[in-house]
């Protein structure tokens, strides 16, 4: 399977770097624990973030959407950031694994397309549980000689 992760890497970098200037509790010198897909904590943007902030980034990787709930339910740690896919967020919210996002810390929210910003998967009971940062498509491939 070929996956173009450049948009995810760029978005992840922008998101992590946006935390530097976020109001509230400082992360300088602290640690961020992430539960993410392989490649979403790439050294090309994690290392500059760590250098700029003094904050260590630790990543735990998942291989499928189902891994998110399984890893969280197993109690393997507390995660500060996750990149759970929208098909998993309902389960994670219902199980109490996700907290609502403090929207006062999110810059540019109004610049996100409404169909992504208002997605039911991240808007539950008047609270926002995720910030969309990438979008992609899953192609359907088939053998024309079998159809």
| Total helical segments | 5
Q: What is the terminal separation in angstroms?
A: 22 Å
Percentage beta strand? 5-15%
| CATH fold annotation | D-Maltodextrin-Binding Protein, domain 2
> Helix/strand/pairing class, anyone?
alpha/beta
How would a crystallographer describe the biggest sheet? 3 strands, parallel
Shape: globular
CATH homologous superfamily identity: Periplasmic binding protein-like II
Overall mean pLDDT: 80
- The stretches of 5 or more residues where confidence is low (pLDDT under 50) are 1-25
CATH class: Alpha Beta
Helix proportion range: 25-40%
CATH architectural group: 3-Layer(aba) Sandwich
SSE string, helices as H and strands as E: HEHEHEHHEE
- Rg for CA atoms: 17 Å
> Biggest sheet: strands side by side, in what order?
2-1-3
Number of DSSP E strands: 5
Give the count of structural domains.
1
Descriptive account of the structure:
With 147 residues, the chain is of the alpha/beta class. The protein has one domain: Periplasmic binding protein-like II (D-Maltodextrin-Binding Protein, domain 2, 3-Layer(aba) Sandwich), CATH 3.40.190.10. The chain is built from 5 helices and 5 strands; from the N terminus they run αβαβαβααββ. The chain has a 3-stranded parallel beta sheet with strand order 2-1-3. It has a two-stranded antiparallel ribbon with strand order 4-5. Residues 1-25 have low confidence and may be disordered.
């Amino acid at each position: 399977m070929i996956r173009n992760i450049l948009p995810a890497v760029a978005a992840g970098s922008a998101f992590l770097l946006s935390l530097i200037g976020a109001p509230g509790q400082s992360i300088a010198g602290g640690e961020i624990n992430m539960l993410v897909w392989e490649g979403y904590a790439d050294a090309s943007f994690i290392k500059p973030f760590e250098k700029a902030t003094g904050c260590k980034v630790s990543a735990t990787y998942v291989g499928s959407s189902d891994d998110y709930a399984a890893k969280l339910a197993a109690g393997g740690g507390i995660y500060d950031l996750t990149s759970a896919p929208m098909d998993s967020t309902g389960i994670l919210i219902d199980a109490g694994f996700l907290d609502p996002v403090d929207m006062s810390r999110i810059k540019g929210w109004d610049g996100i397309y409404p169909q992504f910003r208002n997605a039911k998967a991240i808007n539950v009971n008047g609270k926002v549980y995720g910030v969309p940062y990438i979008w992609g498509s899953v192609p359907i491939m088939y053998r024309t000689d079998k159809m």
